[in-house]
């Protein structure tokens, strides 16, 4: 949905119903181009002895901490309209827990399979006791976001429509579910194609 004249409450209603929404034309091409120029400069050379640059997780992926890019990048990360949408959806203040600029190289195979970010018993540390309860999972635990820095279709972010309401009863990994359950989940898969400057918000459950 285009975000210009749409009430935040309408965006949040869509988000709560489907678990995700695509905000069109949120950032201008000039801003995105400026961020891309900075990112390309950093992605050209890896980090050496702590100097700014990318670090490579595996063959097809490079990562840069976006706060090192400065300038207009901060306007993307700390966009007040997005924060307002997130806080209304969560019914609370939000905390930025993780932020990354990622370059993915097309490799022709899936290396980041379908999954849920949270399930009953999840905790950030293996040393923590208890983890998330069912009661906690019935509320929005976290909201993820992806900003497209280029027109994106192949390899675009995908989400299984409304499955945030399932609450991942058998864990975060799709292969933990039987074939019938997997097919039910995958039948709801939506590929979130986007243009440069679009943003996808999604319920991490």
Describe this structure in words.
With 205 residues, the protein is of the alpha+beta class. 26% of the residues lie in helices and 16% in strands. It is built from six helices and eight strands; from the N terminus they run αβαββααβαββαββ. It has helices at residues 8-18, 29-43, 73-77, 80-90, 134-137, 179-186; strands at 20-23, 55-58, 61-64, 101-104, 143-147, 158-160, 189-191, 199-203. The strands form three sheets. The chain has a three-stranded antiparallel β-sheet. A three-stranded antiparallel β-sheet has the order 2-3-4, covered by helices on one side. A two-stranded antiparallel sheet has the order 6-7. β2 (55-58) and β3 (61-64) form a beta hairpin. α1 (8-18) packs across α4 (80-90). The longest helix is centred in the N-terminal third of the chain and has 15 residues, at 29-43. It is globular and about 45 Å long. The model has no long low-confidence stretch (mean pLDDT 91).
């Amino acid at each position: 949905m285009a975000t210009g004249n749409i009430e935040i409450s309408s965006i949040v209603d869509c988000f709560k119903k489907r678990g995700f929404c695509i905000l069109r034309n949120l950032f201008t091409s000039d801003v995105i181009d400026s961020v891309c120029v900075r990112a390309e400069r950093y992605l050209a050379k890896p980090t050496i002895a702590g100097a700014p640059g990318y670090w490579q997780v595996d063959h097809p992926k490079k990562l840069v901490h976006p706060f090192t890019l400065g300038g207009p990048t901060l306007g993307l990360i700390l966009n007040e309209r997005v924060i307002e949408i997130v806080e209304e959806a969560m019914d609370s203040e939000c905390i930025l827990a993780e932020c990354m600029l990622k370059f993915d190289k097309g490799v022709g195979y899936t290396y980041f399979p379908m999954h849920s970010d949270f399930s009953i018993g999840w905790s950030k540390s293996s040393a923590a006791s208890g983890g998330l309860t069912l009661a906690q999972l019935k509320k929005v635990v976290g909201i993820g976001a992806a900003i497209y820095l280029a027109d994106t279709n192949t390899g675009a972010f995908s989400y299984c429509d409304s499955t945030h309401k399932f609450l991942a009863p058998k864990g975060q990994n799709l292969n933990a579910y039987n074939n019938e359950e997997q097919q039910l989940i995958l039948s709801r898969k939506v590929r979130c194609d986007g243009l440069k400057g679009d943003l996808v918000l999604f319920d991490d459950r």
